[in-house]
Amino acid sequence: MSGADVWRLSATALAARVRAGDLAVADAVESGWRGPAAAWEADVHAVAHTDPGARAAASSAAARDRRTAPLAGVPVLVKDNLCTTDYPTTCGSRILAGYRPPYDATVIGRLRDHGAVVIGKGNMDEFAMGSSTEFSAYGPTRNPYDLGRVPGGSSGGPAAAVAYGLCPVGLGSDTGGSVRQPAAFCGVFGLKPTYGRLSRYGLVAFGSSLDQVGIFARHAGDVAATYAALAGPDPHDATTRQTPAPDVSRWDRGVAGLTFGWPANLWREGVEPDVVEGLEIAAVALERAGARRVAFDFMPGEYAVATYYLVATAEASSNLARFDGVRYGFRHDDAPDVRALYTRTRSAGFGPEVQRRILLGTYALSAGYYDAYYLTAQRARTRIRREYEAAFARCDCMLMPASPTLPFRLGEKTDDPLAMYLSDIFTIGANLAGIPGLTVPVGLTGANGRPPLPRAVQVLGPEDAEPVLLAAGRALEVGGDTIRLGAAHDTEFAWPTKR
Amino acid sequence: MAYEAVIGLECHIQLATVSKMFCGCPAEFGARPNSNVCPVCLGLPGALPVTNREAIDAAIRLGLALGSTIRDVSVFARKHYFYPDMPKNYQITQYDRPLCEGGALPVRIGDATRSFALIRVHAEEDTGKSFHPERHGDRQVSRVDFNRAGVPLLELVTQPVFREPAECAAFLTALRRLVRWLGISEGDMEKGHLRCDANVSIRPAGTQALGTKSELKNLNSIKGVEKGITAEIARQERVLASGGTIEQATLLYDADHDKLAVMRSKEHAHDYRYFPEPDLPQLAVDAAWLAAARERLAELPWTRAERFAAEYGLPAYDAGVLCDQRELADYFEEVVKEADPKKVSNWIMTEMLRHLKATQRGVSDWARNVPPHHFAFIIRSVETAQATATSAKSVLDEVFANGGDPASIYAERGIRARSSSDELLPLVRAAIEENPGPVAQYLGGKTATLGFLVGQVMKKSGGQAVPQTVKDLLEAELARRAAAR
Prior knowledge:
heterodimer, A: alpha/beta, Amidase signature (AS) enzymes, 2 domains, 16 helices, 11% strand, globular, B: alpha+beta, Arc Repressor Mutant, subunit A, 3 domains, 10-stranded mixed beta sheet, 3-stranded antiparallel beta sheet
């Protein structure tokens, strides 16, 4: 391969070259910028903040201290709600304009410890509230497969960047599907780990009991390598699990003997035919690789969307109270007293979707409404969790759509919040239940009069089932061809083509 | 109409832990503003709390001391309101499932001990401190110091069990003693280690229904609590007497001017929107933790006072004073190994505590210069008539001031008690010779002059004469002279 094509490499292949001394860290880190970014970034706008000086400094540090590490020289675009000392952290919001944290999130520190280099901050829906990355104060991100369509959200920036080749790995956050849905829309892998497996310290909170840092990559093995680097207890996050993270080193072991649930009742209506076709393709591939399909009806709580939006908005209304203009970020300059400072700063600093959710959450927690809304939602949440537990008593993992639709057009749902909320229906369950979910690309749709679009499935598992999900993901990556399971990672990927 | 007051207290106890409630920053007082801060206690985006076990341990020990029920699972909650000294615009506290519930604090009032029932004790974080407003050029500026933000607090809430302001003061005094005894707080109200709000209502004497209450804030000394509540009861009585009704309100007490001001009325009451803190797991206290906390608890002040009374035959009052401070009780128990308990108690209450009060020093300062063994020697020297109380006290003064072994001071000065008439008679005679005036008065029937003459003899003896012997000798000598006249 020519040096110019380094950006096509998987993270593990790229790190191996760096460790072998065949590739300089700086060249690895800059490969995406020198390669596809020139063609794509101006149109896609995946990156909210970057800085060549900061990239060079981080590259030098990695080259000096971490040249033999597992992710040596791997460039990573991280969502703009993960605190970084070398780039602003603005959560796609005006209220944090110019804010630069004095500390690195735990996952950022672990990336650096493992030799990876943060190359900038990925665009996102403001405070991770959205499913299209259209609600960013820094402008929307577009889907590289069709620039008229959204990349999904809220972690649309990192998803799109990994898809077009800026970097092999990205980090996002997933509160109700914000990693898995954009991964599906951009045709890449997207893992939401078990709640408590990746530290949330330094992840700007949206819904604390739902938020998990998630991983984007073009290859199952890269998800596994990144998960291995990041997962595990963190003394700064009391909600991390205290036991060691599950071992994902055998992500290429195959799925022989595994059972996967097939709750086809969920996509009998309201799901686009292309998405259903993707599920069929995946099921056949898993069966070819030796897994067994277990068909059953699954009713993960008809109130899941209502439950999710009560819990998420209640927690968000509380978490976002700290953005008041007093200590950091944007401050309204015309405020005669402190009350005006609060209301004017927050009215001008937060976008409409964030204000809508703060109002909803404030209402749900208010005296007289708490029992009816928040408490009821907590009870419903417990039931939803039990329903997932019951399903996983019958199978090792479960197939499900990541989204009921293929990527939709920009502007298509921005005026209809409810339609936007309903598109989360297949992803919010994992957050409510605290279980892991992995989006796995299953190729592009046929060219029926429109550009081919990514198609994906979601694999859900019980707590700590990340090894199972990755094994299933790898089996699907090679189309169920067990002979290729252990083949070295290469540059094979359904790359978008620039039109 | 006669009214009776119903008062409940809400006390905040600032814990003397090394670090803050939810981060590793020092909890110390007096550092440069905004120097003991980190992303967590500043509430920076992305920061998360981690519970300080030592603070919870202190809460458990206080709960055990008060006989509260310690929940094996309690829950932190967020309490929301916007204020610039609150970094997250919510406070992490406990709400519907607090760590400690029930219990009571025994308080000695006069000769009786009364037990005041509690609702709960829970752990929470303190806010920062606002300084405002200050004039900067043409602008008013408020500044905030976040060093205090996140410092651990315990909130203790009593049942509405008080009827008199003085009871509240006695309760706070006892609470202060307890938190110091347990070593969990310095308990100084003036420094804000101990803070108190009072809920006050009144009702016609003899009735049961509760009146509308007001919440009294800014009571920053024990005396202020008593005065503030007294003022509020008087205000409510005036309102009712003039045919008005009590409005639910929060009032601030201005101790300097003995005045109350309304801070906010019911219409402006906060909706704190409590909900369980999702960043913290439920707080689990297992049997092993409880047992370890109980181990650290040691003997409580009131139990120890009872033991002192029973074991050493002390009056309840003495035992109470000795058990006012743990160090003092410890010191007493060391001294009493070598001297009579009641005598030791008397010496401590009259001499030692007088000295400490006058010099503003503590028991440990005393014990450094006057170790128990030396104190016992001095006390014993009077009992065995080796020295007079006067000389013993003067040696004690000196030892407290400069240290040193009283036995060698006695030897150096030749201190002993003089009671032989051979020794004292010459002094008595000399005093009579030198003071013909008072002697004439005495002989003329003004016997009170005798005290003056005794004093003259004591002076001549360098304080070593036993006063009763001197008195006896003087009377005999004067009688002899009267007869000889």
